[in-house]
């Protein structure tokens, strides 16, 4: 009897939850008034009640509204936290990936601030660079918050979508944000998301931009890494597209590829993989080993390429380093 009463009470509490519109309006007013922390706690507690009642649509409306208004006011940590809770609600409700949910995630992503970190000390900075240090710290916080949100979204899209690697569009968004907003750009991480994406032209534009501001010797390494990552997935088409698009963009800018042995290796490698020519592939690896040894990841990627294109089994039958790196990149902050 008591169990029956409890169940009826639970069902009544679900029905008693009001539509979220008034709650959303009230909480947005709190944020507009500067009560960021108090509003944040209410966004979390109110959405939790709707989730407990399995009213996922209402909870998503509350969390999306909160993320957007907090980000509009520059509250990146609060907005990012609500963005992650938005994705967590999709997972809890086992809601499948769709264009509608992707659009809502994109809207939250677009609300994250984009503020370039200065690359030099001008008159606005004192001798100790305090303001520059603050700008870098703020940029790190923005990058970490947005990255956590998008990584959660990628994990959801992998579990409830059609691609086991997650939404290609979400990977491109994460790659773009890390590259443009992080004060300490990790090109390996950027590239790993671009190659899981679906926009080699945008990847090419990023690499051309990187060539204009990187240290000597980093440009050819970044280009080779991107091509080899594509190839390690068996994706010869996008590896060629990347090089072709870079060639066009560099030509338009009156520039060209770095004239290094590593780039020469990549140019020889691509046509080699279009035919059954494992002896030539092996010869190229031996001839250019000094260049490919510059990055320890390259030999691992080349082993994966040999397995993909020529069915040459790896000596160590463990999953490739690139796959492990990608898994880690979705977990680490």
TrEMBL record:
InterPro entries hit by this protein: GET4, TPR-like_helical_dom_sf
GO CC terms: cytosol
Biological process, per Gene Ontology: protein insertion into ER membrane
Coiled coil spans: none
Sequence segments annotated as region (Disordered): 1-21
Biased composition regions of type Low complexity, renumbered to the chain: 1-10
Superkingdom of origin: Eukaryota
Gene3D superfamilies recorded: Tetratricopeptide repeat domain (1.25.40.10)
UniProt similarity note: Belongs to the GET4 family.
Database matches in PANTHER family: GOLGI TO ER TRAFFIC PROTEIN 4 HOMOLOG
Name by which UniProt lists this protein: Golgi to ER traffic protein 4
Source organism per UniProt: Digitaria exilis
């Amino acid at each position: 009897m008591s169990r029956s009463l409890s169940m009826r009470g639970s069902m009544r509490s679900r029905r008693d939850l009001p539509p979220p519109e008034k709650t959303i309006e009230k909480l947005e007013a709190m944020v507009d008034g500067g009560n960021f922390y108090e509003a944040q706690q209410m966004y979390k507690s109110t959405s939790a009640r709707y989730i407990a009642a399995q009213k996922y649509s209402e909870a998503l409306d509350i969390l999306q509204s909160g993320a957007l208004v907090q980000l509009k006011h520059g509250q990146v940590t609060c907005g990012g936290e609500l963005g992650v809770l938005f994705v967590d609600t999709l997972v809890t409700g086992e809601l499948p990936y769709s264009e509608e949910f992707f659009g809502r995630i994109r809207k939250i992503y677009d609300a994250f601030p984009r503020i370039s970190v200065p690359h030099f000390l001008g008159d606005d900075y004192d001798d100790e660079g305090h303001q520059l240090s603050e700008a870098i710290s703020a940029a790190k916080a923005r990058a970490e918050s947005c990255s956590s949100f998008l990584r959660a979204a990628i994990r959801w899209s992998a579990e409830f979508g059609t691609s086991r690697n997650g939404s290609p569009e979400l990977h491109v968004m994460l790659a773009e944000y890390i590259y443009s907003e992080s004060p300490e750009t990790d090109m390996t991480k950027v590239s790993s998301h671009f190659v899981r994406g679906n926009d080699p032209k945008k990847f090419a534009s990023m690499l051309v931009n990187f060539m204009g501001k990187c240290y000597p010797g980093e440009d050819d390494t970044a280009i080779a890494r991107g091509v080899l990552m594509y190839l390690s997935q068996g994706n010869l088409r996008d590896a060629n597209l990347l090089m072709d698009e870079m060639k066009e963009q560099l030509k338009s800018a009156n520039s060209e590829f770095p004239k290094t042995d590593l780039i020469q290796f990549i140019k020889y490698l691509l046509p080699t993989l279009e035919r059954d020519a494992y002896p030539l592939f092996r010869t190229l690896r031996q001839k250019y080993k000094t260049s490919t040894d510059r990055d320890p990841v390259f030999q691992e990627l080349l082993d994966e390429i040999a397995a993909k294109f020529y069915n040459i089994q790896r000596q160590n039958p463990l999953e490739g380093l690139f796959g492990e790196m990608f898994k880690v990149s979705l977990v680490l902050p």
